[in-house]
Amino acid sequence: MPQSSFIMFDEEYREITAAIEKLLRESNAKCVYLVDKDGQLISSSGETRDIDATSLASLTAGNIAATGGLAKLIGEKEFSILFHEGERDNLHISVVGQRVILVVIFDKRSSLGLIRLRVKKASEDLNKSIQKLLDRMAAGADNENLLKEITDDDIEKLFH
Prior knowledge:
Elements: H1 10-27, E1 31-36, E2 41-46, H2 53-73, E3 81-85, E4 90-96, E5 100-106, H3 112-149, H4 152-159
Antiparallel strand pairs: 1-2, 1-5, 3-4, 4-5
């Protein structure tokens, strides 16, 4: 199935935002981003004002794509978790449900172990919300296809 952009519904957006805000609090991270594999920002939370979210989203998606190529070279399906360590800040990047990318930026106030533990739980919650969203999008596409199949003659028959 080809991937398409998300059509975000209010209920799922609130669930997704609540999940990343909970991850932010429980992991003591600086900020959390959820990005689709096309590089579009879905949601963010935390100290995000000094970060260009558009660039972060597209570079993260590119990073996942590049490491996917590396994984295939060595016979792996993908690398689902990436970690980048910096002098001040660290990035924990994980693929959720093979569809979205969770980016956690953290510093010395947290630890990689705590981040991994909290990301694992948050990924389960996010995966449920994303699947619900995909199901809802599919149902909407089915309804749209049904509407396209109704002809003028069908409408006339309904009203006569």
